[in-house]
Amino acid sequence: MTHKSKWLLFSPLGLVTIGAGACMVQWAGSLMNKRAPAKQWVAAGTAALVVLNAGVSLFGQGVVERVLHEVRERPTL
C-alpha cells in the first residue's frame, strides 16, 4: 500500500471516527443529566473517549502518511 493510499484511507476514517466519538461524548453527558446510574454513563463516557482518541490517532497517522508521500514524491534538485 502506498503512502498516498494510506493517507487517503486514514484521514477521512479519522475524521469520521472523531465525529462519532464527539457524538458519543454528548450522549454520555445526556445520560448523566438524565440521572442514569453512574455505572452506565461512566462506561458510556469511557467508550466515547476511546472512540474519540482512536479517531485522533487515525487522523494523525493520515498526516504522517501525507508527509511521507510529499517527501518521497518531491522532485530531486
Automatic annotation (TrEMBL):
Transmembrane segments: 7-29, 41-64
Keywords: Membrane, Transmembrane, Transmembrane helix
Name of this chain's protein: Uncharacterized protein
